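Entry for the shared binder. Reason: the reviewer on the internal report wants the predicted structure included alongside the sequence.
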Amino acid sequence: MTLNTAPSLDPTAEIASLDPQKDCERIAFLLTYQLFPHTIEKSLEYALFKTYAVPSISRILAAQVN
């Protein structure tokens, strides 16, 4: 299984069919996106904001526009 596949609305059946030892990353991915979708979205927004708010990166980006 790939980790970048979007989970279904109810991943219960998929989680039940997975091997806990072998597929632990997929299970964590499914549970995270099912239980904490807002937190995931906000953390990604914050990470992007923080990346582009760094003064040195802002200067580089501003120089590219001109």
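Summary line for the report: The helical segments are 12-17, 24-35, 37-53, 55-65.
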